[in-house]
Amino acid sequence: MNKFDDQATQALLDKSLITENQYQEITAYRNLNIFSLNAELKLFLYLSVLLFTSGIGILIYKNIDSIGHIAILSILLIVIAVCFYYCFKNSKGFQRTETAFENPILEYLVLAANILTCIFIGYLQFQYKPFGTHYDLATLIPTIVSFFCAYYFDNKSVLTIAITGLAAYIGLSVTPQDLLHNDFYANPNLSYSAIILGGLLILYTIYSSKINLKTHFNIIYLTFALHLISIASISNLVGDNSDGGIWMLFGLVLLASSYYFYKVSHKIKAMSLYVFMIVYAYIGLNIFLFRIFDTIDSSDIWRLFVFLLPIYFIGSIVLFIKLIKNFHKEITE
């Protein structure tokens, strides 16, 4: 038993939250050094789903001429139907609170079925164009299916696909690489769309908490909202949009966002939200300060800035570590 577990268990005993007999039982159990493979097995299941669906895509790409479009679509449809049949048959139905399959494999079967559905609809639109030139419908329909599956089967992985599809429907790409390459300044509407979508996701988490609807999904919605709002704001702080002081408006948006996520990360005890909030706020603050100094035409100011820069960065690192340690202590007590 490691030192941290020993201290935590001793603290429970000191606070009379457990009895001496319970303390001895916990200590004896931990000294057995038994560990769970649950996380590792789930990781392998997740990787197997990704490899299987990726293999389907590669198979279609390399053998599209020899297999035929109808055959490929038929095989995909059969596999999707079989997956959903087993999932619906073994599910507990829709529940407002957190639920789970008795067999965890079915959770990943839902994920596979959902990904294959996206592939099927995308391939159908690409080859036969059943939606005509309305390519947005080819994105919207899988998104609706994903939201339905996420809530019916209580699947967080499918929910991430659904939110990604929703963002793609309004013209955003929300993978880390694509977000950083989105030209928010060249297309201001893209920035506004990202911030509005992030705001709507936040409002939905507030609403779902009030009606007690899948509140454990809130961390996913909030994570997407944090990235969307923060990256859109930072991109416009960096962009050459000084005319009219628009960059200051995005600075205020980032400030308000950082404050909100600071409060909510403490409320729901989410370390990931807290860390990313600090990182985005720190980047935004540095950009904001640099732009302010850039407007000051004084070589003395810049000399002082360069002199204090090492101290500033060292102090920032120390402060960052201290904040993380204090937050970790707060959520573990």
UniProtKB/TrEMBL annotation:
Q: Which residues form the DUF2157 domain?
A: 12-158
Organism domain of life:
Bacteria
Q: Where are the transmembrane segments?
A: 43-61, 67-88, 108-126, 132-153, 158-177, 189-207, 219-238, 244-262, 274-293, 305-324
Report keywords, A-Z: Membrane, Transmembrane, Transmembrane helix
Protein name (Swiss-Prot/TrEMBL): DUF2157 domain-containing protein
